[in-house]
């Protein structure tokens, strides 16, 4: 295994040298396949750590442009050690930039009040009522429209401003894999003049 390829994969992924070497061996030396392998392993690690309690963290602030947009994000992790890690600060800053740029209203669909969800679904159903489609199809269309709406108003479902091919949730999972601890967006606030 060529050391330069391992080094390149490490720079791209942030994974350890051994993880990169193993992923490249599993992928038969194919860099893009090795990246996919590391991503899958990272998601697996993130899923295992998602239930861990997050007692430490930081509050990141960001002022955009001439001070007309401001963001505060409370990002949690398990230990003070990780809270002081530059990678943790990096993900907090990326989240603040994301919130400033795309102005989400909620962290996830779980934070949307039940009444708001109900009203949104009713609006979509009314739009489709006269379409003549069967109720089952209408329900599927409404669910699809709700998922699209979540990607607009829920932070974790938005496409990352740095990589449109991944969501903010994917970004967080990647950092969980790199840092080895659960990470949770506790809350945020966005101000705009």
What features would you describe in this structure?
It contains eight helices and three strands. The chain is of the alpha+beta class. α3 packs across α8 (168-179). The longest helix has 19 residues, at 31-49. It is globular. The mean pLDDT is 88.
Could you give the order of strands across the largest sheet?
1-2-3
How many runs of DSSP E, i.e. beta strands?
Answer: 3
Biggest sheet features: 3 strands, antiparallel
Distance between the termini: 54 Å
Low-confidence stretches: none
Mean pLDDT: 88
* Shape category: globular
The SSE order reads HHHEEHHHHHE
Tell me the fraction of residues in β-strands, as a range.
5-15%
User: What integer value in Å does the Rg equal?
Assistant: 20 Å
Helix content: 55-70%
Give short descriptive properties of this protein.
193 residues, alpha+beta
Furnish the topology, listing elements before pairings.
Elements (H helix, E strand, L loop, with lengths): L2 H11 L3 H10 L4 H19 L6 E9 L4 E9 L2 H4 L2 H17 L11 H16 L5 H19 L14 H12 L3 E10 L1
Could you provide a short overview of the structure?
The protein has a 3-stranded antiparallel beta sheet with strand order 1-2-3.
